[in-house]
Specification:
Ubiquitin-like (UB roll); 26 strands; five-stranded mixed beta sheet; six-stranded mixed beta sheet; disordered N terminus; binds FE2/S2 (inorganic) cluster; 26% strand; 26% helix; single chain; alpha/beta; 573 residues; 15 helices
């Protein structure tokens, strides 16, 4: 059995490495780590995965944990991001804390990363006929093969019009032909035979489509013959542990030895886990999955393919490939049929990647006659303007505000997140994911609350919180009471409680973050319309996609100026 070092144990004679004990709560899990280990890493080793929207850069304040005993002096980042009352209670940023002494750590539930995220898995798209590269053919070869002097493979290729056969298929060919009395189903990928099954297995070819988001992953298992969707799996992209946005991932590939392989391995592990759960839920055998399609932004696709995305981190933001990229599933270590194929969606340019190409196909964007704008709102906002068969696109750095980062009480769309806010009977009414006590606010509600504050005159059109004596005279009393000074800032109390941890506020600094993200998206839209000389009132539709984008209320997005002023009914989410 592996030796579990005790605290202060000397690892080897002459090697004075010091091992230190940490106790994590909830769960009272003990762990022993080397002196100097980062607390984030120690927590992860003990099974506590802490959210790190800024990638552990000490900038977002979201990884604050409470050191119940053994807290060190607050770091500069601690003092900058955490209020004094929290510092006094022992709160420290996990990413900025290094273990030098035994400690007991309490990890707030809101810090822990946990699926399921609320992720859009389906949307509005036209009727699309599946056209997989995989095809199957039922054959009775008894007349062709019996007594022939040609090889099994030659006859099979001749009958099926193929020009090659994969080794795993060839290895099983003689046995399957004879044991099935020459009644077989041949599975082909274009002109290559990749599998052979006894009898009629024509309806048993499956594929998986993956949306590889910067933050979240969605996989759908599909019957390739019928197009039927059999199962859906979602997961957090584990690369978020290394940074919330694509730039921090590119930076890791550029600056960290093994950075690329670390990121690639982490996402492949998550994808194989999702494949396993899709197969378990549907009862489909692993060997019957012949194709996987990956769709993501350029950085996500290139890292997943094991391609160094460093050129995407500097002008002119060069992508490694444009055309559809075909690879063997076994080369990536995917847990599907050993001859299975993988397709990475084509990429148009720097930050117009495979995900937006998928959006164009799914919405049949090129078929609209009148101007239509397609927007994928995420950490990276991509948009395509379609007019008379011409497509024009751009992308903007919206930043992670809508993912909950850099927002004081922001969080991702997971259990406990306030996901909607509206005015009702002179007060606000909130909806919380999972119907539990609110723990924070996610992107869709952030857009709502800023719209509410504007509509009620609590903030002005520049985004400034009005002082109590400036508030509109007709502001309902219940709303007026929610505007208060809290933690030294003017804010609006969205949810309250007896404990400090139950308060959810939006502060002036949060409004400014929303304005920055909103301005980035609106700037992209304005430039596209200007370039194509189309005025906003001529837009037939705005189609919104994206993990967070699909949950925003069009009226709120219009109110805060994220979208051009068109009839909300023409906005499709
Ligand atoms: S401050 Fe620690 S992860 Fe952002």
């Amino acid at each position: 059995m592996k030796h579990q070092p005790e605290e202060n144990d000397k690892k080897t004679a002459g090697n004075h490495e010091k091992w230190i004990k940490i106790v994590f709560r909830p769960g009272n899990t003990s762990s022993v780590v080397l002196e100097g280990t980062n607390l984030l890493e120690a927590a992860s080793q003990a099974g506590y995965i802490i959210e790190t929207p800024c990638g552990g850069a000490g900038k977002c304040g979201k990884c604050a944990v409470r050191i119940v005993s053994g807290a060190s002096e607050p770091s500069v980042s601690d003092k900058k991001l955490l209020p004094a009352n929290k510092l006094n209670k022992g709160y420290r940023l996990a990413c900025q804390t290094y273990i030098t002494t035994p400690i007991v750590v309490e990890i707030p539930e809101t810090c822990l990363r946990r699926p399921p995220l609320k992720i859009q898995t389906h949307g509005k798209s036209g009727e699309i006929k599946p056209l997989p590269r995989i095809s199957s053919q039922i054959l009775n070869l008894s007349h062709h093969l019996k007594g022939e002097i040609k090889s099994d493979a030659d006859i099979l290729m001749q009958v099926t019009g193929s020009n090659s056969i994969d080794l795993p298929a060839l290895q099983s060919l003689p046995r399957i032909l004879r044991s099935s009395n020459y009644q077989v189903t041949v599975i082909k990928s274009e002109n290559t035979i990749i599998d052979i099954k006894p009898g009629n297995a024509e309806q048993k070819c499956y594929g998986i489509a993956f949306d590889i988001g910067t933050t979240s992953l969605v996989g759908i298992l599909v019957n390739l013959n019928t197009g039927e969707e059999l199962s859906i799996a979602t997961s957090i992209n584990p690369q978020t542990l290394y940074g919330a946005d694509i730039i921090s991932r590119v930076k890791m590939c550029r600056e960290t030895p093994d950075g690329l392989s670390t990121l690639q391995k982490s996402i492949l592990t998550a994808i194989n886990g999702m494949i396993n759960s899709l197969l378990q839920n549907s009862g489909v055998p692993q060997q019957s999955v012949y194709e996987v399609v990956f769709s993501g932004n350029s950085v996500m696709q290139e890292i997943l393919a094991g391609i160094d995305p460093s050129p995407l981190g500097e002008i002119p933001f060069q992508i490694a490939f444009n055309d559809p990229l075909y690879v063997e599933a076994r080369d990536l270590g995917l847990h599907i049929n050993q001859s299975g194929k993988v397709l990475f969606m084509p990429q148009i340019g720097g930050f117009i990647g495979g995900d937006i190409v998928s959006g164009i196909i799914a919405t049949q964007l090129d078929t609209f006659n009148k101007p239509v704008l397609f927007i994928d709102i995420g950490t990276n906002g991509e948009m395509i303007l379609s007019y008379k068969g011409k497509l024009m696109g751009t992308s903007v750095a919206a930043g992670p505000a809508f993912e909950g980062a850099r927002i004081t009480h922001g969080m991702r769309g997971t259990v406990g997140a306030i996901e909607a806010v509206r005015i009702e009977n002179g007060d606000i009414k909130i909806e919380v994911i999972g119907n539990v006590s609110p723990k924070g606010i996610c992107g869709s509600a952030l857009v709502d609350i800023v719209a509410v504050l504007l509509n009620t005159g609590i903030i002005d059109t520049t985004g400034r919180f009005l002082e109590p004596d400036e508030l509109p005279a007709d502001l309902p009393e219940l709303l007026r009471k929610r505007v208060k000074k809290h933690n030294g800032q003017t804010g609006f109390e969205i949810a309250g409680g007896t404990n400090e941890s139950e308060h959810v506020f939006i502060y002036q600094s949060d409004i400014r973050e929303v304005q920055l993200a909103t301005a980035a998206i609106r700037t992209g839209i304005t430039l596209l319309l200007k370039t194509e000389k189309i005025s906003q009132e001529h837009l037939e539709h705005i189609i919104i996609a994206g993990g967070f984008g699909s949950f925003i209320r069009p009226t709120s997005a219009l109110r805060i100026g994220m979208l051009p002023d068109i009839n909300p009914e023409r906005i499709l989410v």
